[in-house]
Amino acid sequence: MRGAKVTPGPCRASVLRSHYSIKHHRGLAVVSLLLSASLVAMPFQAYISETLPWTTALPASPDFNNLTIFNQTALATHQALYSHATLPHGATYVFDIARNAHVCRHVLSSSSRSPLSLPGVLFYGRAMVDLLQSFANDSASGAWHQRGTCTLVRFITVPLSHQCIWLSRDNPLDSAEYTLTYVLTQYPYPALIWFKFFWRIGSTVLLLTLLWRRYFGPLMGLAHTLAVRGHRNDLIPEHTWRYELIAGDPTAPLLVDPFVVGAFFVDFTLSPHMVAVAVLRLLQVRDVGALCKAVLYLFRMIWFACFSLVAVNKLLKRCRLEYVFTEVDPMWLGLAVLVLGPLLWVINVAVPSFLNAYRYLLVCVYTTNDLVQIEVAGAGAVYILIIAVIPLCFGLRPTPFCRRRRARRVRYSSFLYNSTKNRILFSLVPALRGDDNKNLGGSIYLLFRRCARAKALPVVNTRGPTATFSATATTNDRIVEIVPGASAYCFNHLVIPDHNAAVDQKTFRPQLLCPLHASPWCM
After folding, report:
1. Is the pLDDT of residue 95 over 50?
2. Alpha-carbon span 231 to 243, nearest angstrom
3. Where does the sequence pass through the membrane (predicted)?
4. Of 38, 108, 370, 412, which one has the fewest beta carbons inside 10 Å?
5. CB neighbours (10 Å) of residue 292?
6. What does residue 384 show for φ and ψ, rounded to 5 degrees?
7. 517-to-218, 341, 520 alpha-carbon distances in Å
């Protein structure tokens, strides 16, 4: 038998070696990482206003069996601790970290009657309101020095904190006027603050895992595929290709992820005491740093808006009503919550009818004889409900005619067919502002418009987590094609298009080609 010579074939490493040059757009890569980092850091963003577990003071909770004795004891204790002799000269706000107490002082001027200037006015109980009304009717007499009262603050019947106010005259702020001193002392529960700390660690790990699995991992895989195989099977052999990969904003789908939203919902629900502190700083403190901390903390309320989007998304998918809701732009939703969140508290104080309604929610669960307790759960629920309605106002469609006209203004393959934030970011890339005839892809968005059921997340604009790449032929150094890739996580793989409602067979015939290993990207 004639012998055969066997030569070693190419190994796997040589087969999969890089044939094409690929680079990442550095500017948008940094922006994408910063946007991801801002989301990952949000669980621990709470500690800008809160104290860390190992630095939190643990004052002993008073005895609440006899509220009359509690009122007298707490008032006398605070008057001894926080007077003109113990507080910094001229200070209007002091945080006593050793006793976990927030102290505000305000001069009651006869020329100013606005409740907006009173510290903690949103959380006054009946006894506090009665005291100030009596003082307003008889402020000329000198019998109000060291007169005051306290109120116990509960959250679902659990003692959360207590607050005290009193009037004093011998102080350096203004010797001719009375000064109102307001003290909010919180009761931190050690098990709760440590649970929140570890819960936030778990939330951070969850965010990192989802970002890697749903975006950055597939993005690295796309870069490897382009480097090895190129972007098409029929590439011109005499051309040497190079690619530039442009990253997008990967945070939009996570805003409506049930696990992420649930984690933040639990986190914020376990921190009602910090909402009172944020409102106190927002309305009373003239310190710009404290004001910024309050606004940042109240911005975390955006997760209640995201919670309503998750609920609506489930309802739309269950009832097959995806077409009745317009995608919410995450940037505009964030700006709306950033502005309306603090503004609601200011309006509650500035408008007397709103202030009276809010106070009624605080005391309506107690009898008229109970003057020294308030319950904040009901008032907080109303505020959460208002925040949750904001994205629903964005998502209500005006008319189908306006919707179709807006959808046809730009090509689906263009970077302009995107969320507002991504349009701004992608407009900074000169390669994307060229001839639209070079743009390919975008068919997945046409499918979404023709068949709304194909959307996995119909409530939010998911065109942020794209990965656009430009293919350049080095022989003439010109960009030949620009291809946007959409994350397949936003596509409902189980949908069967309804031909009667979705597809015009003469102009559009969608075909779903399923490879052996599903790609994380859709073109």
Report:
1. yes
2. 9
3. 27-48, 191-212, 259-282, 294-312, 332-351, 371-396
4. 38
5. 13
6. -65, -40
7. 13, 45, 9
pTM: 0.81
Contacts of 433 (CB under 8 A, 6+ apart): 427
**Choice between 31 and 484, residue whose per-residue pLDDT is larger:** 31
Please give the pLDDT value at position 37: 93
Tell how strand 478-487 and strand 521-522 pair up. Answer: antiparallel
What is the rounded CA–CA span in Å between residue 414 and residue 314? 30
Beta strands at 373-375 and 148-155: parallel, antiparallel or unpaired: parallel
Q: Tokens at residue 390, please?
A: 């904001």
Closest CA to 61 of 192, 128, 158: 158
DSSP state of 240: P
Decide if 481 contacts 336 (C-beta within 8 A). no
Q: Is pLDDT larger for residue 507 or for residue 202? A: 202
CB 355, CB 122: distance < 8 Å: yes
Torsion, Cα of 427, 432, 434, 438 (10° steps)? -150
- DSSP annotation of 216 reads I
Structure tokens at 66: 């006899």
Q: 232: helix, coil or strand?
A: coil
**How would you classify the pairing of strands 178-186 and 158-168?**
antiparallel
Q: What are phi and psi of 347, to 5 degrees?
A: -65, -40
- 112 residue type, one letter: S
Cα–Cα distance, 59 to 319 (Å, whole number): 52
Question: Looking at the chain, how many residues does it have?
Answer: 523
The helix/strand/coil state of 247 is: strand
Helix residue ranges per DSSP H, 21-81: 26-40, 42-45, 67-81
C-alpha distances in angstroms, 61 versus 37, 51, 115, 188? Answer: 38, 18, 30, 9
The Cα–Cα gap between 274 and 338 comes to: 17
> Which residues, including other chains, have CB under 8 Å from residue 436's CB and lie 6 or more apart?
411, 413, 414
Alpha helices per DSSP H over 242-399: 258-269, 272-284, 288-299, 302-319, 330-350, 352-363, 377-395
Lookup: tokens for 425 = 């970011």
Which tokens in the block code for residue 505?
A: 């067979």
Rounded to 5 degrees, what are φ and ψ at 515? -75, 175
In sequence order, the β-bridge partners of residue 438 are none
Token representation of residue 176: 């001719």
